[in-house]
Write a structure and sequence with these properties.
Layout (H helix, E strand, L loop, with lengths): L1 H32 L4 H22 L6 H29 L5 H8 L2 H12 L2 E2 L2 H24 L9 H28 L2 H23 L1 H5 L5 H27 L2 H7 L3 H12 L6 H19 L3 E2 H5 L13 H13 L3 H11 L4 H7 L1
Antiparallel strand pairs: 1-2
Helix pairs in contact: 1-10, 1-11, 1-12, 1-13, 2-3, 2-8, 2-10, 3-7, 3-8, 4-7, 5-7, 5-11, 6-13, 7-8, 7-10
């Protein structure tokens, strides 16, 4: 259990560093070069996903081909791609209207939405310690926001706070939908299918939205190698986040991943101390410790599915949400495998029993 918690903690912080990279590069583009093109940045990431995973999915020989997937589930993946694109756009766009403090606080709205969706869609069943752990993590976020207020990072009230807050709530809810969908797909289908379909429809949808809402902003960019390098750094960090998050979700759960990445803002702050002149406060370290305590509490007790709770058979601990299909497959394989020693013993005892009869008994 301790090894699993340490592994989950390390993987979650790796994702936080990727998110930190996207935040720092975006802020540097906005502050230093007055470039604010969230859709263009997302479009580059989706193009990388398309080149890496959609093309691999198209030429793979094991599992369903891309054409079979599109034939059966094309409309589902269109909705998933739309939710993912708009979640990224809404959160980044919200910074133009509301304060950093509001974004940090309201972005946590996605966690209870994610837990509710997991309850009804993935049939996850939580224990009291899970709710306490989430409360502890949110307390850590509150401590971080308090440190922002004391250090003056919440400068400005935004041009329209209401619009900004609504965008944050919308983005957080859409992220919850995509994370639950991602967990279902990577645990029941494949990571390659999820990334390939997101890369395909994310590229198409973001390209259309880019042409509609950001063509003037892109035309006004005074391109140089530094701006191009920042765009590339953002895209690589986002690509790393998308590539590794399904791996982490598969061994844990979408909820635990979202709790683990609450530290991303703290990593952004530490970089901001050198790049943007942020003021340091000991409360930031306290908030980091509190979030980590809540995260460890959540991971210390595996969650269960409704199917597992309703049965009287003993349940083996699981990492995150149980995958019933995988467990059934494992049980089937365990029942089918018989060692050569067992076969020899049966042969000596049965004597005249034929091989065909023994196969039928098995």
């Amino acid at each position: 259990m301790l090894r699993h918690i340490v592994k989950t903690l390390a993987l979650g912080q790796m994702l936080s560093l990727f998110i930190c990279g996207t935040a720092v590069t975006s802020q540097y583009l906005a502050d230093k070069y007055h470039v604010n093109t969230p859709m263009l940045q997302s479009f580059i990431n989706y193009c990388l996903l398309f080149l890496a995973y959609t093309t691999t999915l198209a030429f793979r020989k094991d599992g369903d081909s891309i054409w079979q997937i599109l034939k059966r589930k094309w409309w589902k993946y269109i909705l998933l791609g739309l939710a993912d694109v708009e979640a990224n756009y809404a959160i980044v766009k919200a910074y133009q209207y509301t304060t950093l403090t509001s974004v940090q606080l309201l972005d946590c709205f996605g966690i209870p939405v994610l837990m509710a969706l997991s309850w009804f869609i993935l049939h996850a069943r939580y224990k009291l310690i899970h709710f306490i752990a989430v409360a502890v993590c949110l307390l850590g976020v509150g401590t971080m926001v308090g440190a922002d207020i004391l250090s003056g990072r919440q400068d400005g009230e935004g041009s329209d706070v209401v619009i900004g807050d609504v965008l944050v709530l919308l983005g957080a809810s859409l992220y919850a939908i995509t994370n639950v969908s991602e967990e279902y797909i990577v645990k029941n289908l494949s990571r390659m299918e999820f990334l390939g379909m997101v890369g395909l429809f994310g590229t198409i949808i973001s390209a259309l939205q880019l042409a509609i809402v950001e063509h003037k902003d892109i035309a006004n960019i005074n391109w140089n190698w530094k701006i191009a390098l920042l765009f590339l750094a953002f895209a690589l960090c986002m690509f790393g986040l998308y590539s590794f998050m399904p791996i982490v979700i598969k061994v844990t759960s979408a909820t635990s991943v979202n709790l683990g990445i609450l530290t991303a803002d703290l990593y952004s702050l530490f970089f901001g101390l050198f790049l943007f002149g942020y003021k340091f406060s000991v409360l930031y370290l306290l908030s980091f410790v509190v979030i980590m305590v809540g995260f460890v509490m959540y991971c210390s007790m595996p969650t269960r599915t409704a199917e597992a709770v309703s049965t009287s058979l003993p349940l083996a601990p699981s990492n995150g949400f149980d995958n019933l299909a995988l467990k059934m497959e494992e049980n089937h394989l365990d029942a089918a495998v018989i060692s050569p020693v067992q076969c020899n013993e049966e042969e000596s005892q049965a004597g005249e029993t034929s091989l065909g009869t023994r196969v039928q008994v098995l």
